[in-house]
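Need C-alpha cells for this chain, all 294 residues.
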Amino acid sequence: MGDGDAFLALAETLYAGAPIDFTPARNAAEKAARLSGDRELAARIKGLRKPSVGAWAVNLLVRWEAEQIDQVFAIAQGLREAAGALDGEELRQLTRQRRQLTAALTTRARTLALEQGQRLSTSVADQVEETLTAAMLDDGAASAVRTGMLVTTVVATGVEGVAPEALVAFPEVLGRPAPPVDRAARVLHVVPETTAVRRAVAADRLAEAQGALARATAETERLRAAASEREAAVLQLRDEHDQLQRQIVDLESRATRAEEMWLEADATATESAAELPALSQAVKDAEKALEGLR
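Here are the C-alpha cells for all 294 residues:
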C-alpha cells in the first residue's frame, strides 16, 4: 500500500470514528509516521482537522444511511429539473419531500450519535439539517457531503456557490464517495431505545426554553426600567409644563396691566393734546398784553 493509499485509509478511519477518538488516533498515527522517517506523511496526518460535532454527525449519516443520502441527491436533481421546467406544482411537492427527508435524517443522526455516545444538541441538529439542505441546493456542498469527510457544517442559499475544498479534510477526497457501513455491521449494531432520543431532544428543548425564559425575563426587566425612566421624564415634563403655564398666566396678567397703563397714558396724552390750542392761544394773548404795557 502506497503512502497515498495509507493516508486515505487512515483518514477514512479517523473520520468514521467517534469524535473523542479523533485527536488521540491522529496524533498516534502522526507520531508513527514520523518515527518511520516519513515526514511528508506525518505532516499530512498532522494537518487533518478534527470535524465539528455537526460535521461528524453528517459523516455518520453518509456511511450508515447511504440509501437515504442517495434520496437526498435524487430529490436535489428533481428540484433542479422542476425549476428548469418551471413546474411549480412539482417544485412544491419536491420541496415538501426535501423538508420531510432532512428532518427524518436529522432525527436519525441523533440516534446514531447516541449510539456512539455523543448527544446532539438542538443547535447542532439544526446544523446537520442545514448541511443536508445545502447538499440539495448546491453541487459543491453535495460533493463535500458525499465524501463522508466533512470538517465543518455549511449553509447554502442556492444563490452563491459553496467552495467544497473548504469543507472537507483534504481536497483530493472530493469525488470519492464514502464507503457505506457493510450490512453485517449494521445488523450487529445495537440501536438504542427511541425514548433516549426523545429524552435528549426534550432535555435540549427544556434547556433552550429555560434560556429563552431567562433572556425574556432580562429583557422584560430592561423594558420596565426604561418605562420607569420614561415615566419619570413624563412627570418632570408635566411639572415643567405646569410651571410654564403659571408663567404664561403671570405674563398675560402683566401684559394686560401694561396694556391698561398704556391706554390710560394714551388717553391722558390725547386730552393734553386737545388742550394745546387753547393754551397756545392763551400764551399769545399774554404776550400781546405784555407788549401793550411797554
